[in-house]
From TrEMBL:
The gene is coxB. Its EC number is 7.1.1.9. Residues 36-132 form the Cytochrome oxidase subunit II transmembrane region profile domain. Residues 133-268 form the Cytochrome oxidase subunit II copper A binding domain. It comes from Methylocystis borbori. This is Cytochrome c oxidase subunit 2. Belongs to the cytochrome c oxidase subunit 2 family.
């Protein structure tokens, strides 16, 4: 009987020694491609913002070890209880109903675990919701079922445009189905972008996984979030609230470029979308 217990302990240690690194490695090794989903991908997407990196580190280095340890501990405890207290090994059950030290321990340990998680969690939450001084402000409005973007006049903008899903028949080679749009929003890299988010109709949710950003778009309310993209590229997101029949067809696409390219795009976009804004104002006034 003693040999069996020792073998069980050794087996549990070996399982934990193999399982915990394997789970952690899986989270790192099978991460999605940056900016876009990867078929069969596992784990959080590769991040392109400081807050996104902090979110991923919090998940991989704190939450996953805690989750893995708790899961393996409970599994080991169940195996031990099934072995130690089954009818054959323990034919006469104990009459014990209370164990004050044990009850204190199993109450105190979860509290300590939550306190351990709370410190980095609150720091991350503060970094997400406190918007630093921004050099670019972008207003995003959710509609059924597309997004509208407005660039302020005092930052070289003074125009707005709609962003709609590009039909599958119009996709060029390499463009993503259900994610490619007609007009990409453009932001500069390595600069803080403040995003003001609202809605014209129902509740939507603006989210870009690679930025670590998700914020509700609520009619009559202006919510705010921010990001600072560190790598040039195209980043995809979607509406994260079920907002009607075409909820699945209102993607988000933001292209991050250098400041020089961004200024050039502003000049081109001002000419491209100024005419559209004028036509929309004339049509609204004629109603």
């Amino acid at each position: 009987m003693v040999i069996g217990k020792r073998q069980m302990r050794a087996c549990g240690v070996r399982v934990a020694a193999v399982a915990i690194p394997a789970i952690l490695w899986a989270g790192f090794a099978f991460a999605q491609e940056i900016g876009r989903p990867t078929p069969g991908g596992l784990g959080l997407p590769n991040m392109a913002t400081p807050v996104g990196d902090e979110t991923q580190q919090f998940y991989n280095l704190i939450l996953m070890p805690v989750i893995s340890f708790i899961a393996l501990f409970v599994l080991g405890l169940l195996v031990y209880v099934c072995y130690r207290f089954n009818e054959q090994v323990n034919p006469i059950p104990s009459k014990l109903t209370h164990n004050t030290p044990l009850e204190i321990i199993w109450t105190l340990i979860p509290v300590l675990i939550l306190l351990f998680i709370s410190v980095p969690s609150l720091r991350l939450l503060s970094n997400q919701v406190v918007v630093p001084e921004a050099s670019v402000t972008l207003k995003v409005t959710g509609n059924q079922w597309y997004w509208s973007y407005a660039y302020p006049q005092d930052q070289g903008g003074g125009f707005s445009f709609d962003q709609m899903l590009k039909p599958e028949s119009d996709l060029a080679p390499g463009e993503l189905r259900l994610l490619t749009v007609d007009n990409e929003a453009v932001v500069p890299v390595n600069e803080v972008v403040a995003v003001h988010i609202t809605s014209n109709d129902v509740i939507h949710a603006f989210g870009i996984p690679s930025f670590g950003v998700r914020m509700d778009a609520i009619p009559g309310r202006l919510n705010q979030t921010w990001f600072k993209v560190e790598k040039e590229g195209v980043y995809y997101g979607q509406c994260y609230f079920i907002c009607g029949k075409d909820h699945a067809y209102m993607p988000i696409v933001i292209r991050a470029v250098s400041r020089e390219k961004y200024d050039a795009w502003l000049a081109e976009a001002k000419q491209k979308f100024a005419g559209a804004d004028s036509r929309m104002r004339v049509a609204a006034e004629s109603r």
